[in-house]
Write a structure and sequence with these properties.
Layout (H helix, E strand, L loop, with lengths): L1 H5 L5 H11 L48 H9 L19 H7 L6 H8 L14 H10 L48 H12 L2 H14 L6 H6 L6
């Protein structure tokens, strides 16, 4: 599979799906759901220029430190000594892929709506914590080193999860009083289908093809554990 990918016989999307499968990740287990990278950092421009390297996320860094400002806090957390010596050191107390994160992204489609309601003791979580906007979700990642969610494959092929087709009452945001309905898209996307089309195009772009292996090292490769993980600020609780 690696050789096929290097020879460009399979797409970046196919390669990631196959890697996830080999790593034991599956759509049948929310705790081991396939994981995909955030690949863009520009969610505010009117047009998306895939020839400009500045629109892409730095794939060599874990999502928690893509914003340099977070690196200091992340290092401090790692250097904290557990007085009882029970807990191993870590940079992040949460994970880039977990069941709650999958439900967070897929809240508008069943069976994930029902699973989310069960998780929240029989009701929707408060609107401010819902997945309501792609630009706002990215901004939260940049501002908060404790939020380290990567993406799920649906961001590259499934426009329906961005629409509230079932008309669920997801509440309204506290400050702006905005009603949470369809997911707010980046300015450069004119519809959920347009977002998926451009996002998939970005995934297959020359820039991502040249740098995807750096992210794979963090998630599936040698930077998961040991000294390389410490150096890459990539140690999870």
């Amino acid at each position: 599979v690696l050789q096929k990918w290097v020879n460009r016989e399979i797409s970046n999307f196919d390669y990631l799906i196959q890697l996830n499968t080999m790593a034991g990740r599956t759509y049948n287990d929310l705790a081991q759901y396939p994981v995909f990278p955030w690949i863009l950092r520009d969610y505010t421009s009117e047009e998306l220029d895939l020839n400009n390297p500045a629109v892409f996320r730095d794939l060599s860094k874990p999502i928690g430190v893509v914003n340099e400002k977070n690196a200091k806090a992340v290092k401090e957390k790692y250097n904290f000594e557990d007085p009882l010596g029970i807990i191993d050191k870590f940079h992040y107390g949460t994970h880039y892929s977990n069941a709650a994160g999958v439900m967070h992204y897929l809240i508008r489609v069943e069976p994930f709506t029902t699973l989310h309601i069960q998780l929240q003791s029989g009701r929707f979580d408060c609107a401010d914590r819902q997945f309501h906007s792609i630009p706002a979700t990215w901004q939260t990642l940049m501002d908060n080193p404790n939020d380290v969610k990567e993406l799920i494959p649906e961001f590259f092929y499934f426009p329906e999860f961005l629409e509230n087709q079932n008309g669920f009452n997801l509440g309204q945001l506290q400050i702006s009083k905005e009603v949470v309905n369809d997911v707010v898209l980046p300015k450069w996307a004119h519809s959920p289908e347009d977002f998926i089309y451009k996002h998939r195009k970005a995934l297959e772009s020359e820039y991502v093809s040249a740098h995807l292996h750096e992210w794979i090292d963090l998630i599936f490769g040698y930077k998961q554990r040991g000294p390389a993980a410490v150096e890459a600020l990539n140690v999870f609780y």
